[in-house]
Amino acid sequence: xxxxxxxxxxxxxxxxxxxxxxxxxxxxxxxxxxxxxxxxxxxxxxxxxxxxxxxxxxxxxxxxxxxxxxxxxxxxxxxxxxxxxxxxxxxxxxxxxxxxxxxxxxxxxxxxxxxxxxxxxxxxxxxxxxxxxxxxxxxxxxxxxxxxxxxxxxxxxxxxxxxxxxxxxxxxxxxxxxxxxxxxxxxxxxxxxxxxxxxxxxxxxxxxxxxxxxxxxxxxxxxxxxxxxxxxxxxxxxxxxxxxxxxxxxxxxxxxxxxxxxxxxxxxxxxxxxxxxxxxxxxxxxxxxxxxxxxxxxxxxxxxxxxxxxxxxxxxxxxxxxxxxxxxxxxxxxxxxxxxxxxxxxxxxxxxxxxxxxxxxxxxxx
Length: 366
Ligand SMILES: *Cc1c(COP(=O)(O)O)cnc(C)c1O
Description:
The chain is about 40% helix and about 15% strand. It has helices at about 10-15, 15-30, 35-50, 60-70, 90-95, 140-150, 200-210, 235-265, 295-300, 320-325, 330-340, 350-365; strands spanning about 55, 80, 100-105, 125-130, 155, 165, 170, 175-180, 195-200, 215-220, 220, 270, 280, 285-290, 340-345.
């Protein structure tokens, strides 16, 4: 038995006819950049997230970078980020010339530890980027309150938490600007690279619109520096087919997560994920902690069960930040990077397959 880590094939087969037609409509129209598919995508994203403005952009990384550009974050500025996330969270800060300031994570949620936030602020702080790691939003009330107190913006990195909610409000709409990714393996993925930025602020929305297109205020008149940050029309057509089915998939992810939680509840060698009462997770990943990870991964592999490590190193330990952080050690980020292991997780995971994974994991840890 070889189990896929995520199953994009089944998802496509379930909507093949509709998907092929939507893609062919774009091909027939020959409108590959912007146009009706993109507008439709943005309108439905606004509705889904519950924000005034959404722009479809080229990737989650571009979304973060464009958000920081719109907020005029640049050289000399500091941006607070969790020490543990996908590298793009910190990379976007560095790409605009600002300095990422790394804060340790909460060992239960893996998100930025809001108790440690206050001491990370300086006069140079311009923004904070909370990340909804593995699908669960950060403690956004605490973060927004602190940000307001210090007069800084909140850029929500919802690349993994898109589809989740916090106190009944959808992720992506929980900060000053929300950013997400439609990379194929994210909860809502397209068939290539893509992403989106969200905001309720009319002025920021206009600036983001300009930044997405080389800072164009109108055609060939560039009022600021921007990038080529557009999402392709074909990718937007893919999202247009997938988005109406997305809530159903997020619900199915709850079912899968619950079955893991129940099936693994009595395995003392594992620390299982915990979702706060305030949140519904998008379950981008189902991530456990295990102390002898390499052996467990190897044993699971022998049984045809793939696992992944998100992530084997904290962001500040990346070689590129060697001089910047000068030996910084955030103990919970360190521990997490050594212990976390993600199990196959997608809405189409069959019960029998999942039970096989559960018993294989039970054997592997003992
Ligand atoms: C995937 C991811 C990104 C980057 O998204 P891309 O679309 O791959 O550029 C940023 N932040 C987090 C937390 C991610 O998981």
